[in-house]
């Protein structure tokens, strides 16, 4: 049986076909959930963020014009929803501010949803400022180019490179601590 | 390209590319041959840069081995936020339509717009003055109404006059008849009176004659035979 393309599922979902929308959602829920998990470090927040992202995607589905891949469009929305989520959760912290130490630990409840291999990585990411974390996420896990990252986050490609460089600087220290 | 120019170009590139840019090109595998050489040189010479590259590699390996757990069960259907069809009174164009009709009404009032359907023809006029046709029609209408009222009044007047005249004639006739009867009765009474008076006079005359005769008879009885003879 042939699998329907994203565009076919989108067209059906726009006509009110719930099953088509759920199929499309199931296709991308895993990367979005793990994106949320890495960006927030908490299972509950990741689930909330995922729900917000998909609600936003559904509401804006009609404006998707097949320009670029659906995945890129989806992650662009996810990025903006994530920024909003972050601002709502931490209204006093800027996007370039280094997060407080409390977020570096993954709680016992969240550990259930985070495997041992992922734990170190997710934990390290939680110590990056939101602006750097977004670039690291899109580069390493989204496999996007700097130009694509720039387009998705609304910054220039050079800024994206600088943020990655700055993030690596911090991660280097964190990795050294972890490996020590 | 001559060798010295190529070296010059490379030197320029060296001076231009920062660590961030060089790492960025390496990450996306876009390094040219000279940039590759520069990258290797910088890794050897710049310990900090080399550490960055190493960190990138470690992180890249970790991200590749990132274990994607299954997504916990969640309410997927809540994202299917299909807007319900709006009721007709919630139609988006309703305020606009309302505004447009209000404006139209204002324009119609201000311009004195008149729309008339007459004899299968529609007339639209933007003046509040009545047209000549309209005035003529109104005058004709009023005149007809007036004429009708006058006609009715005249008929009633005529009928009343006729009745009055008839009554008067009847009264006159009765009066005349009554008067003539009375006169005749009086005339007959006079006549009878006259006749009775005449008869009285006659009776009186005859009575006198008879008395005279009686007296004559009694006074001169011997002459009676002579007279009879």
From TrEMBL, chain A:
InterPro entries linked: RNA_pol_sigma-70-like, RNA_pol_sigma-70_dom, RNA_pol_sigma70_r2, RNA_pol_sigma70_r4_t2, RNA_pol_sigma_r2, RNA_pol_sigma_r3/r4-like, WH-like_DNA-bd_sf
NCBIfam families: sigma70-ECF
Protein name as annotated: RNA polymerase sigma-70 factor, ECF subfamily
UniProt KW Metal-binding keyword: no
Residue intervals of the RNA polymerase sigma-70 region domain: 24-90
Gene Ontology biological-process entries: DNA-templated transcription initiation
Organism: Paraglaciecola arctica BSs20135
SUPFAM superfamilies (UniProt xref): Sigma2 domain of RNA polymerase sigma factors, Sigma3 and sigma4 domains of RNA polymerase sigma factors
Protein family (similarity comment): Belongs to the sigma-70 factor family. ECF subfamily.
From TrEMBL, chain B:
Taxonomic superkingdom: Bacteria
Keywords from the UniProt entry: Membrane, Transmembrane, Transmembrane helix
TM spans (from-to): 97-115
This protein's name: Uncharacterized protein
Record organism: Paraglaciecola arctica BSs20135
